[in-house]
Amino acid sequence: MTTNILLCGVGGQGTLLASNLLAECAMEAGFDVKKSEIHGMAQRGGSVVSHVRFGEKIDSPIIRKGECDILLSFEELESIRWAEYLKKDGLIITNSQHILPMSVSAGNAVYPKNIQEILSSKSIQTIAVDAIGKAKELGNQKCLNVVLVGLLAKRLPMIDEKIWPEMIKKMLPEKLQKLNLEAFQAGRNIA
Amino acid sequence: MKHNGKRAFLSGNAAIARGAWEAGIRFASAYPGTPSTEILEHCGEYAEIDAQWAVNEKTAMETVIGAAYGGARSLCAQKHVGLNVAADPFFTVSYTGVNAGLVIVTADDPGMHSSQNEQDNRNYAMMAKMPMFEPSDSQEAKDMTIAAIEISEKYDTPVIIRTTTRVSHSESIVELSERKEAPEREFVKDMAKYCVLPNNARKLHVKVEARQKALAELGCKIEFNRIEKTSSKIGIITSGISYCHAKEVFPDVSYLKLGFSYPFPTELIKKFASEVETLIVIEENDPFIETAVRAMGINCIGKDRIPVCGELNPDIIHESLKEFTEKQMPETVKFEGLDIPLRPPVLCPGCPHRGVFYTLRKLNCTVTGDIGCYSLGAFAPHNAMHTIVCMGASVTNALGIEKAMKEKIHGKLVAVMGESTFMHSGMTGLLDTVYNKGRHVTMILDNSITAMTGHQPNPASGKTLKGEPTKALNIENLCKALGFDNVHVVDPFDLVSVESTLKTALKDEQPSVIITKRPCILLKDYKPKVRLVSINRDKCVKCGMCQKLGCPAIEVNPEDGKTVINQALCVHCGLCAKVCRPGAITQAEEEVK
Ligand SMILES: Cc1ncc(C[n+]2csc(CCOP(=O)(O)OP(=O)(O)O)c2C)c(N)n1
User: Fold this and answer.
1) CATH number of the domain that B150 lies in?
2) Would residue B344 count as lying in a domain?
3) DSSP state of B49
4) Is B167 a domain residue?
5) Ligand 1 neighbourhood includes B86 CB (under 6 angstroms)
6) From B488's CA, which of A65, B244, B341, B457 has a CA 20 to 30 Å away?
7) Is the Cβ pair B339, A112 closer than 8 Å?
8) Closest CB from B335, B376, B547 relative to A106
9) Whose C-alpha lies nearest to ligand 1, atom 5?
10) Domains: count for chain B
11) Where does B80-186 show beta strands of DSSP type E?
12) What residues contact B532, with CB distance under 8 A and at least 6 apart?
């Protein structure tokens, strides 16, 4: 059985750390893992996506459209942009925050309204949470990514729950560990 | 690099660097370029590898050739178009061969995620008659780097490792080993080998042709070229990432996986083809393997169905080859009629390039552009660019346009490039401009770093790849030495000076250079003084001046049409306050402590 997780967001939101954390935990849990993302440009603000696949043996690092189990979205518009990757009974977990694309902030395009309604009209199960609010509450909005990983971890029973905090400690510098361990727990507890 | 234990989760690029380290490579050089950049960055993490950023790909290639002659196992890496710049020494080192092992990495970019073309550099292997590996994942990227060094020394040839974006930037599990130091190889004077005078080169070419034959034989038995036999109905020949994608769609057919794809292992291909009923070649971009298969008189399915343009993925392979599988395409949700606004990359808030494009647009200049973060000046709202060809072309394109259009263009023409591009291949064009009496203006946008590719230091930064201090180039003096009498230096945040300097320079009969100097806002140890920017929305008259800056932190409130400053994004550069006509946006006098 292969598990396909697509992480999407806006450059600068910390999707890279989230996808690294997920991949390392899946590896620690004994799975074959592949991850693919496109990076290169230093600029912030573009649409970013990471594919993470794990299971017994993984061939392509890219998730096929229609085969993604969980879409972990860091921004609401991005959740619908990538929704076509979801499989039939797939799940979206999204931060409810809106970050306006330039075309919208300049008044040349509109940010689609009622994204949640559009998704549910297609029978897509969505968990939308104010993860950025939670991160701010914890004292640093940068831990948004780990809050979201907490939400995701709860839905991945094949990865032992003890692995996550251990990996957070392994991957992050000491001064950031406490905040991120709290963020992870907070994420698990939200929904 | 720190790895706990014997396995690590590495990108293809990190795995190549690891392979270089394990193979005893001592020297590496490159000019950055997506998707190859991280190879050298990772090489630099190993104390045993002397890794350096070169000024361009040609100097990198020539330096690693020298290092290999000198007895150090060496590596250079470049993006696909980088090999064009390095092509001159590249073709000839195939003749001279090496002394210590030499690996040349080319990282191609099918789909052009961050490139200006999608040339398939496998063709370079054939043209230069050099052996080539094509890894499919990170484990292979490491193993093939080690094998490449062995083959390089055994067959006296440089060896190419050809990756693509999806191999370089995908991560997978890699088994780690220890480093094996290489025995010293003395550099012995051997003019017949190392001096490619025509008479020597003629003999070297004969050697190269013999080497090709020996390597094609090697290709038929090397473990990286393997037949995976399941049925005799369908057989697929494939290489690189296409192998991984094909496996998703056709898990049960037979494969000939070519990891050491050039010189073509002719006998192996013929054997495989004879054992299957339908032969399919799956490869990205050009029909490289397919053409060789057809030249053997073997019929196959390939580019008649699979697209040449763009990156492949399992969906495209499935769609192109539907009739060969019973599997259905996965079902997907569609959102018909929904307009999802795109989110392309934009100049960051506080980017020093922004004011330059604002001014170029304001003065309605004809702008020959170049490749760097400032290429984004071609996007709305600036749309301030007329040409982009390749690194360094801004200045020479401008010179050519002048020659064609003469007084029709005088006083309007501006070439724009970054400081890394200037050193890479811009300065030769500037010399051409002086020598051949051009008179356009060249702007060098000096942000102290090679930003586009993720912040590599360059000769103007005063720091090496390993972070050691070194002599910093004075660009202004260099431009003067090239023969420019008019070299201006301005702060790109000082819009008044940028505009007046540009106006003066455009009027001048002599060619001039304007250097705009201010560090990239994302630079780690750059902490500019901050004076807060705020808006009094009562004074906003919706004139739209601030919108012309194309700053992500400036938003229009859809209800009243007035400007809002997004405080989460704003870095208080103050440009918007400078262009705000009614004085609604202001910048505090006091600096934040
Ligand atoms: C021949 C070649 N080598 C490398 C690249 C990759 N590349 C694109 S832009 C760039 C550097 C840009 O640096 P600079 O000119 O200083 O501009 P900045 O991005 O810092 O604004 C590089 C290395 C390329 N496109 N072509």
Assistant:
1) 3.40.50.970
2) no
3) S
4) yes
5) no
6) B457
7) yes
8) B547
9) B33
10) 4
11) 102-108, 132-133, 159-164, 170-175
12) B572, B587, B588, B592
Nearest CA in chain A to B555: A105
Residue B116 touches partner A, C-beta closer than 8 Å: no
Last residue of one domain, picked from the residues B464, B482, B517: B517
User: Pick from B241, B313, B347: which is nearest to A43 by CB?
Assistant: B347
- Write down the pLDDT at residue B424: 98
* A87 shares contact with chain B (CB less than 8 Å): yes
* Whether residue B539 sits in one domain with residue B491: no
Contact A48/A10 with Cβ under 8 angstroms? Answer: yes
CA of B425 to the centre of ligand 1 (A): 11
Reported residue count of chain A is 191
Mutation pick from B238, B333, B351 vs chain A, by most beta carbons of A within 10 Å, is B333
Please check whether residue B439 lies inside any domain of the structure. yes
> In chain A, what are the domains?
3-188 (3.40.920.10)
Closest atom of ligand 1 relative to the B418 alpha carbon: 15
User: Residue B92 is part of which domain span?
Assistant: 7-219
pLDDT for res B2 = 42
**Tens place of pLDDT for every residue, chain A, 191 residues?**
999 999 999 988 999 999 999 999 999 999 999 999 986 565 667 889 999 999 999 999 999 999 999 999 999 999 999 999 999 999 999 999 999 998 898 888 999 999 999 999 999 999 999 999 999 999 999 999 999 999 999 999 999 999 999 999 999 999 999 999 999 999 999 98
